[in-house]
Amino acid sequence: LTVTDLVEHSYSRIHEVEGKVKAFLSLNEDQARAAAKKLDEQSNPERGLLYGLPAGIKDNISTEGLPTTCASKFLANFTAVYDATVMAKLKSAQSITIGKLNMDEFAMGGSNENSGFHLTHNPWNLEHVPGGSSGGSAVSVASGEVYFSLGSDTGGSIRQPAAYCGIVGLKPTYGLVSRYGLVAFASSLDQIGPLTKNVEDSAYVLQAIAGHDPADSTSAKVDIPDYLASLTGDIKGLRIAVPKEYIGKGVDPQVKELVMNALKVLEGLGATWEEVSLPHTEYAVAAYYLLASSEASSNLARFDGVRYGVRTDNADSLIEMYRKSRSEGFGSEVKRRIMLGTYALSSGYYDAYYLKAQKVRTLIKQDFDEVFAKFDVVIGPTAPTTAFKIGTQVDDPLTMYLNDILTIPVNLAGLPAISIPCGFVDGLPVGLQIIGKPLDETTILRTAHAFE
Ligand code: GLN
Q: So where's the catalytic machinery, residue-wise (predicted)?
């Protein structure tokens, strides 16, 4: 088997199923084939960790020479001029970039319905959403178009689509993977991570992309463990906490049942579990949407029609040019968040909203600290329900926001978490979420691998 065979297999699968699932925004066929040929022609090759593996990349990760649109009409014509650090790392691990993947515009959303270009469909049931915002990333892996993909997770955007599509999605500890070249949504929450078919692949990709980066001031200066070596299958004595807030009101009873079954399996492997409380969970969604929108309103100020992307054709003054470019370029969810964030940050409201939300964030972090003093991992569902039908929530932002209740606290606290499949309800996959201590990816990977 040559790398060219792998790449051709990937594109032929794409041509077979893409018309139905629509995971990609752009393909990279010429460059991918050339890269494959180069690897095949290497004499005495020294093989990278991800040698020859076809990869899909979420379209908010900067890829030199390739479109990087964030699924926004604003950046429809934008080609990245440099590689994100994760892309440089993938290149040195020798994976092949097959194309760029659809998402909710600027990663704001949980269903891919906010893409400025087209819908993406859940491969298990095409009438249902794939989740989001890394919907294209999840679908490309779940439908066999690529071997792995990269997504980004600000409030659940890797784990929730992984859960909805029946694959594995890992959000690393904040700071473990460089954000350099990730188009910022909410800089204090964003992390890049892998979406894969199984836990072992997740460990491989994490190994390739983790590590300190001087180009990202929030990058952690830590030694990277051997994630593959942590997949021992042995979880005897593992102490699991199950927050009652994660299996209570609002969680589909069938989803809960599958999580309880998973806990029995883990018990059978020698782990113990206890119910605990994370009492500030109910404030997480409100705090997140204030903080994430505040950061977004600042980060998205750079899209002014001058430096990147589209510029309106019909403006008579500079201010009008800014206003019209932004009005024409951004979709409605992005505008909603910019307005919410600008309001929360404006003088007179700052203390009441932004500062208050920061305090809630600290309380949520403290809830986790207390639980992790006695337990090794926290386990619950990844999302309260399975993937919903396309079109059923798009006009109801509040309901949409509440879908993120189980993933958001993890970002607010900066913790690592993985979603792995744990069964089906009515033909749609359910995800089990395993949350770890800061920088303890090895324990969540080991637990996930033992369960799988
Ligand atoms: N669904 C959440 C939001 O809309 C999470 C997004 C994300 O993690 N990028 O903000």
A: 58 (charge relay system), 133 (charge relay system), 157 (acyl-ester intermediate)
